[in-house]
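Bug report (template v2)

What were you trying to do?
Predict the complex of my protein with (2S)-2-hydroxybutanedioic acid.

What happened?
Run completed; filing so the output is reviewed.

Input:
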Amino acid sequence: MFEKLEMAPADPILGLTEAFNNDCNPAKINLGVGVYKDETGITPVMNSVHKAEQIILDTEKSKGYLPIPGSPDYGKVVRELLFGAADAYPAATAHTPGGTGALRVAAQFLKKFYPDATVWISDPTWPNHNGIFGDAGFTVDKYTYYNAQERSLNFEGMLASIQNMAAGDIILLHACCHNPSGIDPTTEQWKQITQVVNEKKLLPLVDFAYQGLGRGLDEDAEGLRILAAAVDEMVICSSFSKNFGLYRERVGAITLKGGSKEIIDKAFSNLKTIIRRIYSNPPSHGGAIVVTIMNDAALRAEWEKEVAQIRDRIAEMRTLFVDTLKAKGAQQDFSFLTTQYGMFSFSGLNPEQVKTLKEKHSIYIVGSGRINVAGMTRANMDALCTAVAEVL
Ligand code: LMR
């Protein structure tokens, strides 16, 4: 049977990492996949994570299975990060293998019970959103988000799109650090989005992968908290790949918020059935790291400081990139980059320029022109900007 299959296209993001790894040029630069690099160009293990792992190594007593949704302590710390308090709302959380795992579980759960809903994703969005919800059998449609001319949020267009959605449809929102544009709604805009989502009786599904990398841990949860305070039901998919640097440990979560404890108990029992059929129960280690850090005042303070360092370094690289490009004589104004949040920005580089950067300079950028600012360092900035100025 397999001989009938055609080659699948490479993943637009992870496929780029494969190509980067195979590139022998020592000066190669990867601005593709959303992975943080420090000033020395490596993706470090955070000190707080190292210390938590040591504690786990010294105290772990068993490798028995975790419950289907993972440890209850994990659920509590996830909801504390989301809502500011673990018991703010009737809600339940399951530990999933990464944010992708959370989205996949969400897709399967929602498709089983709301098969006729359309899933609305922002235009543009993380390419995997389309695949995850499409594979689950959903009709996936796009809502207006990005204004390419102004390099801003097309808020009027976004609201108009939402007005066109049908009651019971699912709207996928990025809580912060929009991937790929780096453009987030303001507080006022979040309030308006919330109002329309409520009026139209939509189910918000919030993808929260970059908490702490934009403006701050609480600040980045602002939009989500505005929504949570006003809507009865929502689904939140979290990832701790970026803010705990736990990429390969696959640490994510799905949280259901509902109108009452009874409703949530029933919904969550069904979610557990879905999980049981996909991966039974989650891997322990990464979640244990998050719990150990969050429940230890000193480790938590150290982690918060480390997240702030990541955030500050990204902001610094944004400014340095804009200034260096200017110094290299680039005619185009890139100052819009400094008003965006998180790892990503839409550079405005077109597919031809992206191709030249890769083939001629071993600089890897996603085909859409999305750049990962966290892949820039003081050491690679000059070569990077020389090459970008050349292709402009
Ligand atoms: C990204 O968008 O680059 C990250 O979320 C990593 C991934 O899995 O694509």
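What did the reviewer find?
The chain has a mean pLDDT of 96. The first strand starts at residue 29 and ends at 30.
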